[in-house]
Each structure stands twice: as structure tokens, then as C-alpha cells.
UniProtKB/TrEMBL annotation, chain A:
Family annotation (InterPro entries): Cyt_b/b6_N, Cytb/b6-like_sf, Di-haem_cyt_TM
Provenance organism: Sulfobacillus benefaciens
Residue stretches spanning the membrane: 33-57, 77-96, 108-128, 162-181
PROSITE patterns for the chain: CYTB_NTER (PS51002)
Descriptive protein name: Cytochrome B6
Entry keyword annotation includes Transcription: no
Source domain of life: Bacteria
Segments forming domain Cytochrome b/b6 N-terminal region profile: 1-193
Keywords: Membrane, Transmembrane, Transmembrane helix
Annotated GO biological process: respiratory electron transport chain
Gene3D superfamilies in the cross-refs: Cytochrome Bc1 Complex, Chain C
ATP-binding among keywords: no
Residue stretches in coiled coil: none
MF annotations from Gene Ontology: electron transfer activity; oxidoreductase activity
UniProtKB/TrEMBL annotation, chain B:
Spans through the membrane: 23-43, 265-284
Domain of life: Bacteria
Keyword terms of this UniProt record: Membrane, Transmembrane, Transmembrane helix
The protein's name: Cytochrome B6
Length: 210, 315
């Protein structure tokens, strides 16, 4: 009993540590725009949550007939584009740098799950917009869900889609992104591959000077 | 489990970092980009296809669609789970497991019940409605089939659809009453009734009513159909769509998928396998070493490698 509680305490202490969340140093290789892509994705999520709260507080369809709400809806729409744009660039960066090395596989997996959860999160948003795009996609996409035995998710029920888009999916996404970022902060970002001109492998310290 | 760290360098410096500045910078970048895009381009919204609009614009085609709801040829009439016991869109065994949790009796829910409500305002509807309801199913289908065929030569005259003389039973009267109900704008309300609650969250029957010819006619010029890579296209030209769905949309275009009656189940299943491959990358032998072989990382860490090349001693 004591072992796992002590281990949990230790783990929680490192998760909740200021040093984890507000580091004052970073590895020299983790600099520049390539290392802003994850934060740009998370920042897009923050913009989506804030604009989404304003939209939800004013109620569905308000954005279709109120000028101010339409502007908020526009920020929400472009926020989604920014979110996926930066997430895709981030995905390319972490792939090309083999970011799962050094025991970071779960961090990668959490990111991949966040990606697949983000798709229905965005899709349910399109469905509750109420225009022809919503109408067409609700009717078309239902066949796929029905075929896979997920017919209880009724895309033509805008109440269910509102709940999914405003509560269920963003909260799930928030937890996944939170867990993903927590692991990134705890384990830091992956160091570079060892490189040597003859490609014969690393030296004793894992790096061969070139 | 011990972590293998032989595939990474261990010799690097830690450099000062203002992490709050980093986070604020990315937030400001996104906020500015999003506000500028919102101000310049607003948000795409294509006017929906309402039942009223479809009935007014295409009265003959509207009656043909409504007639197919009565003879069982409509898109939803024989769909299958989760709406009814049909097999028309039964793609996969899983589909049966959920049962008919969104029950839909197409002739009754789409046509006969709305007409019964309208009959309380216009009693002239009652006689043809009762004649149809009291006929055998065979007779109903025969009338509907004959009327549907006749609509190929249907015309409109003073707001009513007219077809060549034939044995259609009460169909001409019922279908013109349905057309009038739709043109009035009251049909949508009749389709989403729920006597149990005063809220109207479930638009199922309203949205499914137009499935088939009307929705496809509206979607085709906008390139929204599945065969047109529609999932990733916006309904308003010039705006970005859901481009992150490109891979599943591409799978839908594969000939053996596109021609399969279970295209949705197959495309989504293959798409899931693609995602699984991505998600399990760290644990897939060889695939997890591809980035090292590709060497793109040399560009990403160009500065780090350059610094080391010019470095003279350990750090």
C-alpha cells in the first residue's frame, strides 16, 4: 500500500512542481520556430475554448443572426483552422525528430489520441452551425457511424451534437492535451540523433563529434 | 523497463529560457492571426436547404420524393438500423447490435402523420387520407408506383402538380396536399414533434426527410458529395474545409471502396488502421527508425550540429 502511495506522492510532486511548468532553462537544441509548434497548437486550443465559451453562453444559432456573435464564430472557425494547421506541423516535426525515443512513446500516443479526438470535436462543431454544410454532413456521415454500430451517436440530433461539441469532446481533448503536455514537461523534449560523418554510431557518451 | 538512450546525444547545454515569454508569444501569434482572419474573411455559411424551399423550387421532384416515401423506395424507407428493420443501408453486422434506437416509420412519420395534422385545418385532406390508410399495402404501393411513374411527365399548373390521367387512387390529392404543407413552411414543425417535451433538440426526421435527390441536387454543384472528395470541401467556395480529413476522404475514392455497398464501414475501418499505425509508431520495428534514415532531423537541428562541429571541448 505504502509503496504506490509514496510513488504517487513523488510523481505528483514532480508534476505539480514549479520547475516542471516554469523552467528557466531549456536544452540548446530545442530552440526556434520548430519548438513553438506544440505551444501554437495549445494556444489555438485556448482561443477555441474562450471563443467557444462566448458562443455557448449566447446559445446555438446566435452567431447566424447577430453581427457580434458572427465575429466570435469567425474567430472560432479560424481558431479551428489554426489548431489543425499547427498540430499538423507539430506532428511532422515530432515525427522527423523521432520524438518517441528515450521512453517518450506514451507522450506520442497521447498526442495521436488527441489528434483523432480533435476530428469529431471539430466535426460536431460544423454540425451545430446550422447551415447547408451542417445539413449535408449530418445526413452523409451518419451512414459511417451507423455502419460501425455507433448509431447511438445521432448526428441529426442537434441537442446531442451540442453536448458533444461543447462538453464531452472538448473536455476529453483537454484531458488528453493536458496529459500530453505534462509528459512533455516531465521528460523534456527528445535530444537529437547522434551523428557522425561515417554513420558508424555514437561514442561512449552517445555523441560522436563531427 | 530500462530506456534505450543509445540513439540520442547526451552532450548538450541547457540555455536560459523565459518560458512565460514563450507561451505568451505563441498565444499572441494565434490571437492576432485569428482576429485578422475573422475580420477579413468572416465565417462561411451556406443557406440551408429547407423543406419549404425545396417544395417551392422543385414541386414535381418534391412529389416524386414524397411518393417514394409511401411506396418504400425512398432513401430512408428501407434503411435498416438504427431506424427500422430494412436492409437498404445495412453495411456491417455491428449496425444491427444497437437495434432500432431512433425508430422511423417513413410512410407514417414523413407523410401520413403530418397530413393527419394538416387535416384538422383542411378537412378536405381527410377523405383521401382515409382511403389510402384503409387500402391494402399492395394497393398502396401500386398507386404510389403508378403515380411516381406518371410524375416523370408531371407539370405544374396554378401551384398544383398535374399528371396524365391514370389509376393513382388518392395519391394525386395526398401528394398535392403534402406539397402545399411543405410550401407553407409547416412541414418541418410536423416532422420534429415530440409530445413528451417542449424542447426541440432532435432534428432527425427534418434532416432525413430531404435525404436523397434534394440534398444530392444541392450538394453536387458545391462538390460536397463523397465521390467528389466532398468531406474536405467547404460549402462556400474559397474557404478552407475540413482538410485534416484528407486521408479518409482519399480512402473513399479507392475503386473497391467506392463500389462497395459497405463503403462507409470499409473506408472508416481502413482510416482507423492508418491512425493506429501512426499512433503505434514508437513500437513498430523499422518504421520507428525511418526518421533517422530520412535525415530531415539534420535540418531541424542544423544549428545544434553546426555548433558541435565548431566546438572544441566538452560542455
Amino acid at each position: 500500500m505504502a509503496n504506490w502511495t509514496e510513488a504517487s506522492s513523488k510523481h505528483l510532486r514532480s508534476i505539480l512542481s514549479v520547475d516542471t511548468w516554469l523552467p528557466d532553462t531549456m536544452p540548446e537544441y530545442a530552440q526556434g520556430f520548430m519548438y513553438m509548434l506544440g505551444s501554437l497548437t495549445a494556444s489555438s486550443f485556448v482561443v477555441l475554448v474562450i471563443s467557444g465559451i462566448i458562443l455557448a453562453a449566447n446559445g446555438p444559432a446566435s452567431w447566424s443572426y447577430n453581427g457580434a456573435m458572427r465575429f466570435v464564430a469567425a474567430t472560432h472557425f479560424w481558431g479551428v483552422q489554426a489548431f489543425f494547421f499547427f498540430m499538423m506541423l507539430h506532428l511532422w516535426r515530432v515525427f522527423f525528430t523521432g520524438a518517441w525515443r528515450g521512453g517518450r512513446g506514451i507522450t506520442w500516443l497521447l498526442g495521436a489520441i488527441a489528434f483523432i479526438v480533435a476530428i469529431p470535436t471539430a466535426f460536431t462543431g460544423f454540425l451545430i452551425n446550422g447551415d447547408l454544410y451542417s445539413q449535408w454532413n449530418a445526413v452523409q456521415a451518419k451512414d459511417g457511424l451507423n455502419a460501425l454500430g455507433l448509431g447511438w451517436v445521432n448526428l441529426t440530433n442537434s441537442g446531442q451534437m451540442f453536448g458533444m461539441h461543447v462538453v464531452v469532446l472538448p473536455l476529453t481533448l483537454l484531458l488528453l492535451i493536458g496529459a500530453h503536455i505534462t509528459r512533455v514537461r516531465l521528460k523534456s523534449v527528445v535530444p537529437p540523433y547522434p551523428v557522425d560523418d561515417n554513420q558508424t554510431g555514437g561514442s561512449a557518451n552517445g555523441y560522436k563529434h563531427i | 523497463m530500462a530506456t534505450n538512450t543509445s540513439d540520442m546525444v547526451h552532450d548538450y547545454r541547457m540555455v536560459p529560457e523565459d518560458f512565460v515569454k514563450h507561451l505568451m508569444s505563441t498565444l499572441v501569434i494565434v490571437v492576432v492571426v485569428v482576429l485578422v482572419a475573422a475580420a477579413l474573411f468572416s465565417v462561411p455559411e451556406a443557406a440551408p436547404l429547407t423543406i419549404q424551399k425545396d417544395a417551392i423550387q422543385n414541386p414535381v421532384a418534391f412529389e416524386a420524393m414524397a411518393t417514394r416515401d409511401l411506396n418504400g423506395q425512398g432513401r430512408m424507407a428501407d434503411y435498416g438500423p438504427p431506424y427500422n428493420h430494412g436492409t437498404g443501408n445495412l453495411e456491417f453486422i455491428f449496425q444491427k447490435w444497437v437495434g432500432d434506437i431512433h425508430p422511423l416509420n417513413v410512410p407514417y412519420d414523413f407523410i401520413l402523420h403530418p397530413l393527419a395534422m394538416a387535416a384538422s385545418i383542411n378537412p378536405a385532406i381527410t377523405a383521401p387520407l382515409h382511403r389510402f390508410e384503409n387500402a391494402s399495402r399492395t394497393q398502396q404501393i401500386a398507386w404510389a408506383n403508378a403515380y411516381e411513374s406518371a410524375l416523370a411527365r408531371g407539370t405544374t399548373s396554378t401551384g398544383t402538380v398535374v399528371v396524365p390521367a391514370g389509376h393513382y387512387g388518392p395519391l394525386p390529392a395526398l401528394m398535392n396536399d403534402t406539397l402545399k404543407l411543405a410550401e407553407s413552411g409547416l412541414m418541418s414543425g410536423a416532422l420534429i414533434r415530440n409530445p413528451s417535451v417542449v424542447t426541440r433538440f432532435d432534428n432527425q426526421n427534418y434532416l432525413l426527410f430531404l435525404e436523397g435527390t434534394p440534398m444530392h441536387t444541392a450538394a453536387t454543384p458545391l462538390q460536397l458529395k463523397g465521390t467528389q472528395w466532398g468531406i474536405i470541401h467547404p460549402a462556400v467556395e474559397g474557404y478552407p474545409g475540413a482538410w485534416w480529413m484528407t486521408i479518409p476522404t482519399w480512402i473513399y475514392q479507392w475503386p473497391f471502396v467506392a463500389s462497395s455497398p459497405a463503403n462507409d464501414a470499409i473506408a472508416l475501418s481502413i482510416g482507423f488502421v492508418f491512425w493506429l499505425f501512426l499512433a503505434l509508431t514508437p513500437w513498430i520495428p523499422l518504421w520507428n527508425r525511418v526518421p533517422q534514415w530520412l535525415g530531415v532531423y539534420r535540418l531541424i537541428w542544423k544549428g545544434y550540429y553546426h555548433d558541435y562541429r565548431n566546438d572544441t571541448g566538452p560542455r
